[in-house]
Amino acid sequence: MQIYEQLWNEAMPAFKRGEPLMDHHLPDKTKDRRRGVSLAFWLPPSLQARIKLFLDQLAADFPGQYFYQPEELHVTVLTLISGSEFRRQEIADVPAFRAILREILSRHHSFKLAFRGVTASPNAVLIQGFPLDEGLAKIREAIRRGFAQKGFANRLDRRYPNSAAHVTAMRFCKPEADWKRLAARLKENRQTHFGGIEVNALQLIWGDWYASANTVRMLEEHRLPDSICAADVS
Which helix (H) or strand (E) covers residue 45, if one does? Predict the structure, then answer.
């Protein structure tokens, strides 16, 4: 997928220079007051376990970096209110957002994804997700269209292309590390197959920038009936 290759090609020069981007909020997240609202879904325990094995190996060799806990591994479908300390006005629009989502998602079905390989950005390690049908793309497009029709066209975060479904698994917060070695380890796992899932529910959540388990609050869950078209997710 082009977006994953683009990220990889941006990250590798930074790793070779020993200059990836540090997230200075991570050493003490209690001081990070950024909060936002997103539509997302979490990975099932079986997939969490496979990714955890990979992350445990990285954590042993690269201590001090930030690794997501298994229950925090998620895919963001769209961000409705970007994480910010200044969000009072945006929060007032959440009831309208919820009504729009209920109307749109009631017309959509479950969708399937395969998680295969890893990529990196200059500040994170990502598990690559690949849609096996058009369900996710159709949901994103319908939400963007619905929000535009209601006058909220400029409110949605545009970082999430219709084709991407990555899981952020590791972030960088300690400059002292063997970055070339990390690049080599990631390259070894560029095609590692973690598994597939069928997504039959989406959650509207309030939480911090990282969707940390101790801050996330589910505002609403939207069930997605089974898709008519089946796809192999093994």
Answer: helix 45-61
User: Which of 126, 115, 113, 112 has its CA nearest to residue 193?
Assistant: 115
Tell me if residue 112 falls in helix, strand or coil. strand
The pLDDT tens digits of the residues spanning 123-153 come to: 999 999 999 999 999 999 999 999 999 998 7
Give the phi and the psi of residue 42 in degrees, each rounded to 5. Answer: -100, 155
* Residue closest to 30 by CA, chosen among 225, 210, 203: 210
Residue 177, phi then psi, degrees to nearest 5? -160, 160
Q: Tokens standing for 27?
A: 């050493």
Angle value at C-alpha 23, between 18 and 28, nearest 5 degrees: 130
Residue 170 near residue 68, CB atoms below 8 Å: yes
CB 39 within 8 A of CB 119: no
Give which of 233, 121, 128 is closest to 190, Cα–Cα. 128
**Which residues on adjacent β-strands are paired with residue 66?**
171
The Cα 80–Cα 93 span in angstroms is: 10
Q: DSSP state, 226?
A: P
| Angle, vertex CA 98, rays to CA 226 and CA 72, nearest 5 | 65
Q: pLDDT tens across 13-65, in order?
A: 999 999 999 999 998 998 898 999 999 999 999 999 999 999 999 999 999 99
Helices and strands in the chain: count of H runs, count of E runs:
6, 9
Report CA 92 to chain centroid distance, whole Å. 25
Name the token pair of 128: 């690559």
The closest of 33, 115, 30 to 74, measured between CA atoms, is 115
